[in-house]
Amino acid sequence: MPVIKGLQKTTLIDYPGKIAATVFTAGCNFRCVFCHNTALVNAGESSLPEIDPDELLAYFQKRLKQLEGVCISGGEPTLHADLPDFIRRIKALGLAVKLDTNGTNPAMLKKLFVDDLLDYVAMDIKGPLELYPRIVNTEIDAEKITDSIELIMQSGVAYEFRTTVLPAFLDEENFIRVAGMINGADCYYLQQFHAGEQLLNPDYQQAGSYSAGQLNLFAGKFGPFVKKVAVRGL
After folding, report:
1. How many domains are there within the chain?
2. pLDDT tens track for 130-142
């Protein structure tokens, strides 16, 4: 089973339209400068206690009258080879499953879609592909990112793309490039960047954010490309 290091027992925002719980898996192949889940990034170094998946599933079983779904986040959940088995056990309880992913494992995404294991997918778009190495602090396989976008858009499963908007990396010109990456998508969210001491990269712990007006202006650029665009986290 996946290494699980966190649980939010109830959320009304992580899974659109559903009362859900959020499970946080450990380990990530990115080191995003604006990451708030620093305790989950390095699976082997995390001081957070590991949560027994069997105990977690038993907990969900007891809360079936309150919960409608489970959001699986991280870290990066698709790094765990046994993720499909874990999701099958959740869905066997009658709960819907939402996956949060960075899109670096299209092979796992394809398996989850083929096996009909997902009800909603949220993929983070960090920025234009050429900026990814600076934002996530590692080299990437750009083709895997674009393959994941295509898989999600063609899956028939409800989905959203989303971008955390850090002014140091994203301006109007770069948003035009992002729009081209997800042209024809159903849903895209611009998420406000929030500084803080818990950020993975200390260089950005006091970085500024765009105003609500600026974010809404950027969102307007996506009108010709995406069916629904909105701003979150203001």
Report:
1. 1
2. 999 999 999 999 9
